Amino acid sequence: MRRSPAREALVAGFRSMLPQLGLEIFLTDSGIETDLIFNRGIDLAEFAAFPLLDSNAGVAALVAYYAAHLDVATAAGVGFILEAPTWRANADWGARLGYDAAGLDRLNRAAVVLLQDLQGRFADPRPKPISGCLGPRHDAYRPAARMTAEQARNYHRPQIETFAATSADLVTAMTLTYATEGIGIAQAARDCAMPVVLSFTVETDGRLPDGTSLADTIAVVDETTDGYPAYFMINCAHPTHLDGVLEPGTAWTARVRGLRANASRRSHAELDDATDLDAGDPDEFGREYAALRAELPGLTVLGGCCGTDVRHVSAVARACAGID
Q: CA-CA to 103 of 20 to 30 Å: which in 156, 158, 181, 244?
Protein backbone atom coordinates (compact mmCIF):
# COMPACT_ATOMS: atom_id res chain seq x y z
CA MET A 1 0.00 0.00 0.00
CA ARG A 2 1.33 3.44 -0.95
CA ARG A 3 1.49 6.09 1.76
CA SER A 4 -0.09 9.44 1.09
CA PRO A 5 2.20 12.52 1.00
CA ALA A 6 0.62 13.68 4.28
CA ARG A 7 1.42 10.34 5.92
CA GLU A 8 4.99 10.43 4.59
CA ALA A 9 5.47 13.89 6.11
CA LEU A 10 4.00 12.74 9.39
CA VAL A 11 6.48 9.93 9.91
CA ALA A 12 9.53 11.59 8.32
CA GLY A 13 11.04 13.08 11.49
CA PHE A 14 13.87 11.13 13.06
CA ARG A 15 12.46 7.59 12.93
CA SER A 16 14.89 6.40 10.28
CA MET A 17 17.92 7.88 12.04
CA LEU A 18 17.71 8.81 15.71
CA PRO A 19 20.05 11.75 16.31
CA GLN A 20 20.91 10.61 19.84
CA LEU A 21 22.81 7.60 18.50
CA GLY A 22 25.98 9.64 18.03
CA LEU A 23 28.43 10.83 20.68
CA GLU A 24 26.83 14.22 21.31
CA ILE A 25 24.99 14.79 24.57
CA PHE A 26 21.20 14.91 24.58
CA LEU A 27 19.42 16.13 27.67
CA THR A 28 15.93 15.10 28.60
CA ASP A 29 13.60 16.04 31.44
CA SER A 30 13.60 15.06 35.10
CA GLY A 31 11.19 13.39 37.53
CA ILE A 32 7.98 14.80 36.10
CA GLU A 33 5.61 13.19 38.61
CA THR A 34 7.56 14.09 41.76
CA ASP A 35 8.24 17.58 40.42
CA LEU A 36 4.58 18.23 39.70
CA ILE A 37 3.48 16.86 43.08
CA PHE A 38 6.10 18.21 45.46
CA ASN A 39 7.40 21.33 43.71
CA ARG A 40 4.29 22.53 41.88
CA GLY A 41 1.56 21.37 44.28
CA ILE A 42 -0.39 19.35 41.71
CA ASP A 43 -2.20 16.23 42.86
CA LEU A 44 -1.60 13.27 40.56
CA ALA A 45 -4.00 10.40 41.12
CA GLU A 46 -2.25 7.04 40.69
CA PHE A 47 1.00 8.98 40.16
CA ALA A 48 -0.12 9.65 36.57
CA ALA A 49 0.64 12.88 34.71
CA PHE A 50 -1.26 12.18 31.49
CA PRO A 51 -4.73 13.27 32.81
CA LEU A 52 -3.34 16.82 32.99
CA LEU A 53 -3.74 16.88 29.21
CA ASP A 54 -7.50 16.97 29.78
CA SER A 55 -7.59 20.51 31.19
CA ASN A 56 -6.23 23.93 30.24
CA ALA A 57 -4.61 24.31 33.66
CA GLY A 58 -3.00 20.90 33.36
CA VAL A 59 -1.63 21.64 29.90
CA ALA A 60 -0.23 24.95 31.16
CA ALA A 61 1.55 23.14 33.99
CA LEU A 62 3.07 20.66 31.55
CA VAL A 63 4.20 23.41 29.19
CA ALA A 64 5.89 25.25 32.06
CA TYR A 65 7.62 22.06 33.15
CA TYR A 66 9.00 21.19 29.72
CA ALA A 67 9.89 24.79 28.84
CA ALA A 68 12.13 25.08 31.89
CA HIS A 69 14.08 21.99 30.81
CA LEU A 70 14.27 23.11 27.19
CA ASP A 71 15.78 26.39 28.36
CA VAL A 72 18.61 24.39 29.94
CA ALA A 73 19.28 22.45 26.73
CA THR A 74 19.22 25.64 24.66
CA ALA A 75 21.72 27.32 26.98
CA ALA A 76 23.94 24.23 26.89
CA GLY A 77 23.81 24.04 23.11
CA VAL A 78 22.71 20.40 23.08
CA GLY A 79 19.79 18.41 21.74
CA PHE A 80 16.79 17.48 23.85
CA ILE A 81 14.55 14.42 23.87
CA LEU A 82 10.94 15.39 24.48
CA GLU A 83 9.49 12.53 26.52
CA ALA A 84 5.69 12.40 26.56
CA PRO A 85 3.94 12.51 29.97
CA THR A 86 2.29 9.16 29.18
CA TRP A 87 4.12 6.74 31.45
CA ARG A 88 0.83 5.45 32.89
CA ALA A 89 -1.39 6.00 29.85
CA ASN A 90 -1.94 2.27 29.31
CA ALA A 91 -4.99 0.06 29.76
CA ASP A 92 -4.78 -1.01 33.40
CA TRP A 93 -3.69 2.32 34.86
CA GLY A 94 -6.04 4.18 32.54
CA ALA A 95 -9.00 2.11 33.74
CA ARG A 96 -8.22 3.05 37.34
CA LEU A 97 -8.46 6.69 36.30
CA GLY A 98 -11.65 6.29 34.28
CA TYR A 99 -10.18 6.18 30.77
CA ASP A 100 -11.21 3.60 28.19
CA ALA A 101 -9.25 2.69 25.05
CA ALA A 102 -10.60 5.65 23.10
CA GLY A 103 -9.75 8.07 25.90
CA LEU A 104 -6.21 6.74 26.16
CA ASP A 105 -5.74 6.96 22.41
CA ARG A 106 -6.90 10.59 22.51
CA LEU A 107 -4.58 11.63 25.32
CA ASN A 108 -1.54 9.77 23.98
CA ARG A 109 -2.07 11.67 20.72
CA ALA A 110 -2.59 14.94 22.60
CA ALA A 111 0.73 14.42 24.38
CA VAL A 112 2.58 14.26 21.07
CA VAL A 113 0.79 17.37 19.79
CA LEU A 114 1.85 19.21 22.96
CA LEU A 115 5.48 18.24 22.37
CA GLN A 116 5.24 19.24 18.71
CA ASP A 117 4.11 22.70 19.81
CA LEU A 118 7.08 22.92 22.15
CA GLN A 119 9.41 21.97 19.31
CA GLY A 120 8.13 24.98 17.43
CA ARG A 121 8.56 27.35 20.38
CA PHE A 122 12.22 26.43 20.75
CA ALA A 123 13.24 26.73 17.14
CA ASP A 124 17.01 26.40 17.54
CA PRO A 125 18.95 24.05 15.23
CA ARG A 126 19.57 21.27 17.75
CA PRO A 127 17.38 18.20 17.21
CA LYS A 128 14.49 17.54 19.59
CA PRO A 129 13.10 14.07 18.89
CA ILE A 130 9.72 13.21 20.40
CA SER A 131 9.44 10.00 22.39
CA GLY A 132 6.19 8.30 23.32
CA CYS A 133 6.68 7.13 26.90
CA LEU A 134 5.43 3.72 28.06
CA GLY A 135 5.41 2.43 31.59
CA PRO A 136 5.13 -1.07 33.03
CA ARG A 137 1.77 -2.76 33.33
CA HIS A 138 2.17 -3.24 37.08
CA ASP A 139 3.89 -1.39 39.92
CA ALA A 140 7.31 -0.16 38.85
CA TYR A 141 9.00 -1.42 42.01
CA ARG A 142 6.96 -4.52 42.88
CA PRO A 143 5.15 -5.98 39.87
CA ALA A 144 2.04 -7.88 40.94
CA ALA A 145 2.52 -10.42 38.17
CA ARG A 146 4.98 -11.15 35.41
CA MET A 147 3.83 -11.36 31.83
CA THR A 148 5.23 -13.57 29.15
CA ALA A 149 6.79 -11.76 26.21
CA GLU A 150 3.70 -12.47 24.10
CA GLN A 151 1.37 -11.13 26.79
CA ALA A 152 3.48 -7.98 27.07
CA ARG A 153 3.52 -7.64 23.29
CA ASN A 154 -0.28 -7.72 23.13
CA TYR A 155 -0.76 -5.51 26.19
CA HIS A 156 1.52 -2.65 25.13
CA ARG A 157 0.81 -2.74 21.40
CA PRO A 158 -2.27 -0.43 21.45
CA GLN A 159 -0.29 2.44 22.99
CA ILE A 160 2.59 1.88 20.56
CA GLU A 161 0.15 1.78 17.64
CA THR A 162 -1.19 5.15 18.74
CA PHE A 163 2.29 6.67 18.83
CA ALA A 164 3.10 5.12 15.45
CA ALA A 165 0.15 7.03 13.97
CA THR A 166 1.54 10.35 15.25
CA SER A 167 4.74 12.28 14.58
CA ALA A 168 6.52 10.62 17.52
CA ASP A 169 10.03 9.57 16.52
CA LEU A 170 10.39 6.65 18.93
CA VAL A 171 8.88 5.02 21.98
CA THR A 172 10.66 4.64 25.30
CA ALA A 173 9.58 2.14 27.96
CA MET A 174 10.69 3.20 31.41
CA THR A 175 11.05 1.56 34.80
CA LEU A 176 10.91 -1.99 33.52
CA THR A 177 11.66 -4.63 36.13
CA TYR A 178 12.04 -7.88 34.21
CA ALA A 179 13.20 -8.99 30.80
CA THR A 180 10.09 -10.50 29.23
CA GLU A 181 8.07 -7.28 29.49
CA GLY A 182 10.89 -5.51 27.68
CA ILE A 183 11.01 -8.25 25.05
CA GLY A 184 7.28 -7.95 24.42
CA ILE A 185 7.49 -4.16 24.12
CA ALA A 186 10.37 -4.45 21.65
CA GLN A 187 8.41 -6.97 19.58
CA ALA A 188 5.31 -4.75 19.56
CA ALA A 189 7.43 -1.77 18.51
CA ARG A 190 8.92 -3.82 15.70
CA ASP A 191 5.39 -4.80 14.63
CA CYS A 192 4.60 -1.08 14.36
CA ALA A 193 7.93 -0.12 12.73
CA MET A 194 8.75 2.17 15.66
CA PRO A 195 12.25 2.62 17.10
CA VAL A 196 12.21 1.60 20.75
CA VAL A 197 14.33 2.27 23.82
CA LEU A 198 14.08 0.05 26.90
CA SER A 199 14.93 1.48 30.31
CA PHE A 200 15.29 -0.87 33.28
CA THR A 201 15.39 -0.02 36.95
CA VAL A 202 17.80 -1.57 39.43
CA GLU A 203 17.96 -1.92 43.20
CA THR A 204 20.75 -0.61 45.42
CA ASP A 205 22.90 -3.62 44.45
CA GLY A 206 22.67 -2.77 40.76
CA ARG A 207 20.44 -5.75 39.97
CA LEU A 208 16.85 -5.81 38.76
CA PRO A 209 14.21 -6.34 41.47
CA ASP A 210 14.11 -10.09 40.71
CA GLY A 211 17.88 -10.36 41.24
CA THR A 212 18.81 -10.63 37.56
CA SER A 213 21.89 -8.72 36.49
CA LEU A 214 21.57 -5.86 34.04
CA ALA A 215 24.10 -7.60 31.78
CA ASP A 216 22.02 -10.78 31.60
CA THR A 217 18.81 -8.82 31.05
CA ILE A 218 20.18 -6.85 28.12
CA ALA A 219 21.73 -9.96 26.64
CA VAL A 220 18.48 -11.94 26.68
CA VAL A 221 16.47 -9.04 25.26
CA ASP A 222 18.95 -8.55 22.42
CA GLU A 223 19.15 -12.28 21.73
CA THR A 224 15.38 -12.70 21.65
CA THR A 225 14.64 -9.60 19.55
CA ASP A 226 17.67 -9.75 17.22
CA GLY A 227 18.94 -6.56 18.85
CA TYR A 228 15.86 -4.54 17.89
CA PRO A 229 16.02 -1.88 20.67
CA ALA A 230 17.87 1.22 19.49
CA TYR A 231 19.59 1.29 22.88
CA PHE A 232 18.97 0.70 26.55
CA MET A 233 18.71 3.04 29.51
CA ILE A 234 18.64 2.87 33.29
CA ASN A 235 16.18 4.92 35.30
CA CYS A 236 14.76 5.25 38.81
CA ALA A 237 18.01 4.36 40.61
CA HIS A 238 20.71 6.56 42.11
CA PRO A 239 24.06 6.80 40.25
CA THR A 240 25.82 5.14 43.19
CA HIS A 241 23.61 2.07 42.71
CA LEU A 242 25.54 1.49 39.49
CA ASP A 243 28.94 1.30 41.17
CA GLY A 244 30.79 -1.67 39.67
CA VAL A 245 27.80 -2.62 37.49
CA LEU A 246 28.59 -1.04 34.13
CA GLU A 247 31.70 -2.56 32.57
CA PRO A 248 33.57 -0.25 30.19
CA GLY A 249 34.60 -1.95 26.97
CA THR A 250 31.99 -4.71 27.06
CA ALA A 251 29.41 -5.17 24.31
CA TRP A 252 26.44 -5.10 26.67
CA THR A 253 27.53 -1.89 28.38
CA ALA A 254 27.93 -0.22 24.99
CA ARG A 255 24.20 -0.80 24.52
CA VAL A 256 23.45 1.44 27.55
CA ARG A 257 23.25 4.99 26.22
CA GLY A 258 20.97 6.73 28.69
CA LEU A 259 20.58 7.45 32.40
CA ARG A 260 17.68 9.01 34.25
CA ALA A 261 18.70 8.61 37.87
CA ASN A 262 16.89 9.28 41.12
CA ALA A 263 18.02 12.16 43.32
CA SER A 264 17.86 9.94 46.40
CA ARG A 265 20.12 7.10 47.47
CA ARG A 266 17.15 5.40 49.13
CA SER A 267 16.03 1.95 48.07
CA HIS A 268 12.77 1.46 46.21
CA ALA A 269 11.13 0.17 49.37
CA GLU A 270 12.24 3.25 51.29
CA LEU A 271 11.01 5.55 48.53
CA ASP A 272 7.64 3.78 48.49
CA ASP A 273 7.23 4.45 52.22
CA ALA A 274 8.57 8.02 52.16
CA THR A 275 6.25 10.97 52.76
CA ASP A 276 8.88 13.59 51.96
CA LEU A 277 10.86 14.40 48.84
CA ASP A 278 14.57 13.59 48.99
CA ALA A 279 16.03 15.90 46.33
CA GLY A 280 19.63 15.16 47.30
CA ASP A 281 22.35 17.58 46.17
CA PRO A 282 21.91 18.66 42.52
CA ASP A 283 25.57 19.67 42.11
CA GLU A 284 26.77 16.34 43.47
CA PHE A 285 24.26 14.67 41.14
CA GLY A 286 25.88 16.41 38.17
CA ARG A 287 29.36 15.37 39.27
CA GLU A 288 28.24 11.76 39.57
CA TYR A 289 26.98 11.86 35.99
CA ALA A 290 30.27 13.36 34.81
CA ALA A 291 32.20 10.58 36.57
CA LEU A 292 30.12 7.94 34.81
CA ARG A 293 30.62 9.63 31.45
CA ALA A 294 34.37 9.76 32.00
CA GLU A 295 34.33 5.96 31.98
CA LEU A 296 31.47 5.55 29.52
CA PRO A 297 31.51 8.29 26.86
CA GLY A 298 28.69 6.50 25.04
CA LEU A 299 26.37 7.48 27.89
CA THR A 300 24.85 10.43 26.06
CA VAL A 301 21.14 10.63 26.96
CA LEU A 302 20.99 12.35 30.32
CA GLY A 303 18.04 13.31 32.50
CA GLY A 304 16.48 12.57 35.86
CA CYS A 305 13.85 10.47 37.58
CA CYS A 306 12.20 10.53 41.02
CA GLY A 307 13.12 13.52 43.17
CA THR A 308 14.92 15.38 40.41
CA ASP A 309 13.85 18.63 38.77
CA VAL A 310 15.29 21.24 36.45
CA ARG A 311 18.06 22.02 38.98
CA HIS A 312 19.44 18.51 38.59
CA VAL A 313 19.31 18.64 34.79
CA SER A 314 21.06 22.02 34.94
CA ALA A 315 23.77 20.52 37.13
CA VAL A 316 24.20 17.64 34.68
CA ALA A 317 24.52 20.14 31.82
CA ARG A 318 27.16 22.09 33.73
CA ALA A 319 29.14 18.99 34.63
CA CYS A 320 28.82 17.11 31.34
CA ALA A 321 28.31 19.75 28.66
CA GLY A 322 30.76 22.27 30.06
CA ILE A 323 28.43 25.23 30.58
CA ASP A 324 28.54 27.72 33.45
A: 181
